[in-house]
Design brief:
The protein is of the alpha+beta class and about 290 residues long. It contains five helices and 18 strands. The chain is globular and about 55 Å long. It starts with a strand and ends in a 6-residue tail after the last helix. The model has no long low-confidence stretch (mean pLDDT about 95).
Amino acid sequence: MKDFFVKSHGLGNDYIVFNSNETSFQFTEKNISLICDIHYGIGSDGILVKVPSTKADFGLKIYNPDGSEAEKSGNGLRIFSKYLYDCQYTRSKNFTIETPGGIVTSKVIEEKGRKASLIKVDMGKAIFKSSLIPVSAGTEECFGYPLEAGGKTFQVNCVSVGNPHCVIVTDKLDQDELMHYGPLLEKHPFFPNRINVQFAKVLSPSEVEILIWERGAGYTLASGSSSCAVAAAVIKKGLTSRDLTIRMQGGTLQVGIDEDWNIHMSGEVKEIAYGYLSDELLSLMDVK
């Protein structure tokens, strides 16, 4: 049957997954925003869509709640991996996924009741070159760079892990500060494609706590790509070891980065619900 979906979360960061070959609607900004709306739709931090790939075992498109497309999502990749394994698109525990931010390798580490529960994703390399993130800096890298937003100057550390991130290391995490300055930094003209924002506090050489403002989604309980970006930033600054526990309000992820800046990330994923879009909801949407 058409329009089947699965909704899952990774540490409170939730996505709805569809198969593009089994939907009767288009993935337009209007439709995506409606599905992600908690009052008029299902409610979600984003939508994941299984699409064909000629370069990897599976293809993935990632949409933010505002309808914009994301290059990569760590939690999204783990959720999508669980979907592929649980729905038996693959019985292998190792497979590749093509995203707009590059091809990644996913591995099911643990399963419960024949469903994937713990998943590891090799996220590719951390990239620090300003033009590739991209940021409008006149320097080769944008690290410890003073950037003014809303009357306050931040020392920003910018990195791409397949999507762009701005990491601010601080001695004190303040959610009100994140909520005020997060959207200003996300849409700052310094970032031509907008940017994900993280405030990070180093707790020990092996632990970092973070708050997240996600591009196109806003305040987020957890983010896999944000965890990877923060890990890359604090390691590059010499503040921690290369194997880290990243603590977020939604839970923790394990992130490791080798000396060539290859990133691997592992964490839990849990299914919330599955079903079919109703005719009444579909009647409000752009159909194929």
